[in-house]
Amino acid sequence: MTDNVTVKQSLKKLLDGNKRCIACKQQNPRQDARRRKEVSKGQKPYAVIVGCSDSRIPPELIFDQGLGDLFVVRLAGNIVDTLAMGSIEYAVEHLGTKLIVVLGHGKCGAVTAAAQSADAPGHVGAILRAIQPAIKKAKTLPGDLVENAIRANVSLVAGKIKASKPILTEMVENGKIEIIGAYYNIETGAVELL
């Protein structure tokens, strides 16, 4: 599926699916037994979605996509660590995926918590610390701190992915992949490109 699909076509498929989701006209494509059998032989997702673990933000539903269409990497606050970066590299290098979307969302609990404190018990503290650069950037902007931080976090994560050497940086420079940021409005269901 990814061999002949351009980044522009991939993005259109995502946005068309989101329009169907907003209008409650989901097609729930490629989710039947035939598709399950088809993808059991291999996968060719056309987009990587780097999203938040929030249970209200399932990319396959937001974009009305089916089995094998999306390669989804989810961590709270849509952050990336070395393991997430390895997953992204696998998708673009071995599966041929050309589009990476970093998807932030309104009312993000991880970003809200990071805006309140850079510290938390257990491993949650690592998530809050990873989001602190976005909090710092958002504090310089007018408007709502958390909303600004959510959008800043998307931008910073997209930048981190683009700068990941050697694989992702080289693929970006050679025009083999494109990385974009997006924001999901949890109240309306709409995805906005950033």
What does this structure look like?
The two termini are 26 Å apart. β1, α3 (59-62) and β2 form a beta-alpha-beta unit. The protein is an alpha/beta fold. Strands 2-1-3-4-5 form a five-stranded mixed β-sheet, with helices on both faces. The mean pLDDT is 95. 45% of the residues lie in helices and 14% in strands. The chain has eight helices and five strands; from the N terminus they run ααβαβαβααααββ. α5 (109-116) packs across α6 and α6 packs across α7 (145-162).
What gross morphology would you assign? globular
Share of β-strand residues: 5-15%
- Measured as a percent range, the helix fraction is 40-55%
Number of helices: 8
H/E element order: HHEHEHEHHHHEE
* Count of strand segments: 5
Low-pLDDT stretches:
none
Biggest sheet architecture: 5 strands, mixed
- The end-to-end span amounts to 26 Å
Rg, Å, rounded = 17 Å
Mean pLDDT level: 95
What is the topology, as strand order, of the major beta sheet? 2-1-3-4-5
